Structure prediction request, 306 residues.
Amino acid sequence: MERKFHILVDVDDVRIDTFLSEKLSLTRNKIKVLIEGGHVRSGNKPLKPSLKVKKSMEIEGELVSDEPLSLSPETIPLDIIYEDDWILAVNKPKGMVVHPSFGHYRGTLVHAMLGYLGEREGFEDTERPGIVHRLDKDTTGVILLAKDSKTQEILSRQFNHRSVEKVYRAVVEGVVKKEEGTVEGDIGRHPKERKRMAIVRKGGRYALSRYRVIQRLSDSSYVEVYPSTGRTHQIRVHLSSIGHPVVGDPIYSGKRRKQVERPLLHAYRISFDHPQSNKRIMLEAPIPDDIEEFLGSEPLQTKADG
Prediction:
């Protein structure tokens, strides 16, 4: 089966395999296979994986899969935070993938949304209908969905212009000493470990996150994070880069990965302009039980500890 894509490049001097890996949520190796198989083009010309992209360059191609992509509605319970005629906000559970991709053909949030709303016609984006942003599979919390193509376009533009404010809560390893801080740096694929993202010197995309400490425990900290950009694994990479990876993170964490079932990262709050009224909307998702339980299981730091 083939799914077509068309992308307008928004960065300079990044390898095309690295750029498409992030844009299409595929491994760099899969992108390389597509490129070498002639399934990625610019101006009807075949490309090489090492090509450096330029701003305003147009890339098109096909995602080839042996597994048929099904966007049939599925009956999957949704924890709805807010709903009106234009938008749906859901508290995404752990373990749910947002949209279909290689290896995830059913049981996604898109399938659940179509099952809840009824299969709607008229979405211009037939691969990811209603999707305006993403959360990692095991990240819980509030996620916005559009009910029609016009709303999807309006909300997507807000994300692109960085007018959407996002707040995350996370439990991280170690006691964070600073009350608050800022982490920034270009994020791209790790040069040796392809499943990891990292702060890189070349070939990455600019990313910035601010954080503040909510609570210090004996051997971990509860923090609030404010990402200004939305790069792949951004919060997980940034917190790991300052020596405080998210507890339970199977990619970036260390000693605590066996203590919990998932990374203790939660999309807590989102603020945006309503696509119809233009009024500012703020929505929150309750802190999940696994984070509450972990916070209750570890003693608070005392003055003597600090």
In short: Residues 149-160 form the longest helix (12 residues). The chain has a mean pLDDT of 88.
